[in-house]
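Thread title: Can someone regenerate the structure for this chain?

I was given the following input by a collaborator and told the matching structure tokens would be attached. They weren't. Posting the sequence so someone can regenerate them.
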Amino acid sequence: MPFKALVLAMGILAAILGYFGYDRMVKTQIVQYPATDTWQLLQAASRDGALGVATLGGAFGLDAEALNAQIAAALRANFSDPWLRFETDPAKPHNGFRLVFLPDAADGRQPDFAQACAGTRHRQAPDSENFNLFAVLCGPNGVAGAAQGWLKRPADAQDPALARLFVQIGNSAMRGKT
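Best answer:
Regenerated them for you:
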């Protein structure tokens, strides 16, 4: 009998941990497959400067500039490729590629990526339950790749799950895969 009770208790514990852990997971999907190998393009372009990073819209009480700084810091901390540098200042030269983040897209709907590359803000409509994020890799010839991700809405911008979302979505948009 004690063995069955132990197995039952372990099963209940696993179910509880799985339920609560699922809410903290980052969910991603590629929303537009790039026509070319974007990672190879970025490697070649990196000789000409850093990858621009821009955020169109704010979230968690942060304006777009503050949220952009937080996203760029997360990217810098998590990419070890020595050739890959991230620049948030649009006045500084970059390599012709920009990674544009679109937080809280209305109803999680896919924004117009070409407009995002042109710098046009999308319609924001924060969902009370989930935080939606799109990342668009804009190249010299327009949209080179894009990805979407979401997670259960964190209480604030300091939640580590949010930094993981920024990195995972940026990586997916740059590489063209999840």
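Helices lie at 2-23, 38-45, 64-78, 113-117, 160-175.
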